[in-house]
Every structure is written in C-alpha cells, then in structure tokens.
Write a structure and sequence with these properties.
Blueprint lengths: L1 H7 L2 H10 L34 E3 L3 E2 L3 E6 L5 H14 L14 E6 L4 H11 L7 E3 L4 E2 L5 E2 L8 H8 L6 E7 L14 H18 L2 E7 L17 H5 L2 E6 L9 E9 L8 E5 L6 E3 L7
Parallel strand pairs: 3-9, 3-10, 4-5, 4-8, 8-9
Antiparallel strand pairs: 1-2, 6-7, 10-11, 11-12, 12-13
Helix pairs in contact: 3-4
Length: 295
C-alpha cells in the first residue's frame, strides 16, 4: 500500500510522484456522455429490418459477401470457378441448387492464367456466354488503349466498384485468383490486423454492390491440421470470409482425376454438401459428378 511504498523509497521520489499527479477535479467523476463527448453511430436492433441472404450458388456463394476457394496448386480451383462463371453467364442451374436464376455477368481478375490460351478455352468448353464474362487487363488504359497498372485491393477499390456498378452491366460475381496477389507490399499476410485492414474495405464494397467475391487462396504445407489453419497467411483470411470451399482430391482415391468441393464454412446457413468433378488429364474437359459426397 502507500505506507509501504513511502517506507521503502526515498522521500524525494515520493515528492516527485505527488507533484506529477493529476489534481482531482469534480468533472473527473462525470461520464463521457455527460461531458458531451462524441458517440458511436449505434442503433437498437429493434429498428433493424431483417433481410434474406441472396445466393449466387446456394450455401456456397452469397451476393454481397466473400467466399474463399482454397486448395493446393493444381487441384482445379480456377477451372471449377470458370465452370461456375460460365453457368452463371447462361443462367444454368448450378449443382446441388434447385433455384433457376437469370443470366448474369462475371468479372475475372487473375494473376496466374492467360486469357487467350487458358481461360478462353475453359470458358468455351463450359459453353459460357462470352459477352457476359469480363477480363481485367489492368487498372486503366493509356492513349493507345494499352492496359496499365496491376490491380490492388488496397489502392483500386474505387475502380473495381465503378466497374461492378457500370450501367448496362449486371455482375453476380468477381473472381480474384489468387486473392493475395492483389494485396501488394503494404499488407503483411501473416498479421491479423494487416489482413483485416485489407479485407474489411473489400467486404464493404461487396455489400454495397451486392456482388459475390470468390477469392482463391492456396494452402500451406502444414499437414494433420484443420483446413482453416492451412490457408496461406493469417487465420484472419478465414475469419473474415463468410463462406469457404475446399477443393481437393482423395490421396488414396481410385481415380486421381476426381476432385471434391467441400464447404467448410458458411456464416449464413448450413455448410454446403460436398460435390465432385472430374478433369480429364488428356483433354482437360470438365464434368460434374452426380450427387453429393463427403470427405
């Protein structure tokens, strides 16, 4: 207590502490509100109007929210998303989803595949409406029409929002493949605060535009742990997304060309049932397998 402190310290130290102490004033006992301090923008939940989640793909891709599509390299994540994009562009029924939706647009931002010799073939094989699939070449064009700049989630969200809300277009989904390629050097992907500072504004953009964000991420080399801890970077990537899908194969499966798509997070409903697809190693053709599956 104070007596012990005085007995065990020199008098000059005690005097110095007393002189530096803040003098009590009556207003010190007032609350922040009574002093007229600024307040947070809050409202009672009784005034909140509930709304239904609008699904782009039931229990997997939700309008206005992000979904991580995770898996090891070469498992077919990008090919599967091209298949989904093609089905959205045609208004086709997606697997394990009975709802019929009108044709919509899809925006693809990819740092790994070439649009001319890879993505075009995947979309064509899936019978995509090419007029509804848009490819991002850069953040702007010069006077000669050549693309300039590399898209950044940190610096170019205004441009992305302008594209998604452009009159005459009707975007259902934007694909970022892989998502961490567009974070730039400003984001430390192994620090929660740094990751959340990047994903937060991106999530708000999706909410405003009512567009689904399909964010491809690779898995790290850790084995024997939950899939959520195997996503490259900080766990905040998984924590901030609303849905998450894992694309993988069975190590001991009879057919190594078969891949499984398993829902391992859904903040807005039940986890999605597992689906399977097959990519022919010779022709590259994609085919959904009938029914649902478990891993």
């Amino acid at each position: 207590d104070a007596g012990d402190y005085v007995r065990n310290h020199h008098a000059d130290e005690v005097v110095a502490i007393l002189k530096a102490a803040h003098e009590w004033r009556p207003e010190d006992d007032q609350t922040a509100a009574s002093r007229g301090a600024s307040r947070l923008a809050s409202r009672p939940m009784a005034t909140v109007t509930r709304k239904e989640v609008q699904w782009v793909w039931r229990n997997r891709l939700a309008a206005g929210k992000s979904c991580i599509v995770a898996g090891d390299p070469g498992e077919g994540k990008s090919t599967m998303l091209c298949q989904v994009a093609a089905m959205i562009s045609r208004g086709a029924k997606l697997p394990d989803d009975d709802e019929v939706r009108p044709p919509r647009d899809v925006l693809i931002i990819s740092a790994e595949d070439d649009p001319e010799d890879t993505v075009w073939d995947r979309l064509a094989a899936a019978n995509a409406d090419m007029g509804r699939i848009y490819w991002v070449d850069g953040v702007s064009r010069d006077e000669d029409g050549k693309p300039q700049g590399f898209f950044s989630v940190i610096d170019d969200l205004d441009r992305l929002e302008g594209t998604l809300t452009e009159p005459g277009r009707d975007f259902a989904m934007v694909i970022l493949d892989p998502f961490d390629a567009y974070l730039g050097g400003q984001v430390d992907t192994h620090r929660s605060a740094s990751v959340r500072a990047a994903t937060g504004p991106f999530q708000k953009l999706l909410e405003r535009t009512h567009v689904c964000g399909a964010c491809v991420l690779h898995l790290n080399k850790t084995s024997g742990t939950k899939a959520s801890y195997r996503i490259q970077g900080n766990i905040a990537f998984f924590a901030t997304t609303r849905q998450a899908l894992l694309v993988s194969h069975e190590p001991d499966g009879e057919d190594d060309q078969v891949r499984h798509v398993v829902g391992f997070k859904n903040a807005n409903g039940p986890k999605a049932a597992g689906l399977s697809f097959k990519i022919d190693a010779m022709t590259g053709s994609f085919r959904w397998q009938p029914g649902t599956t478990t891993m």
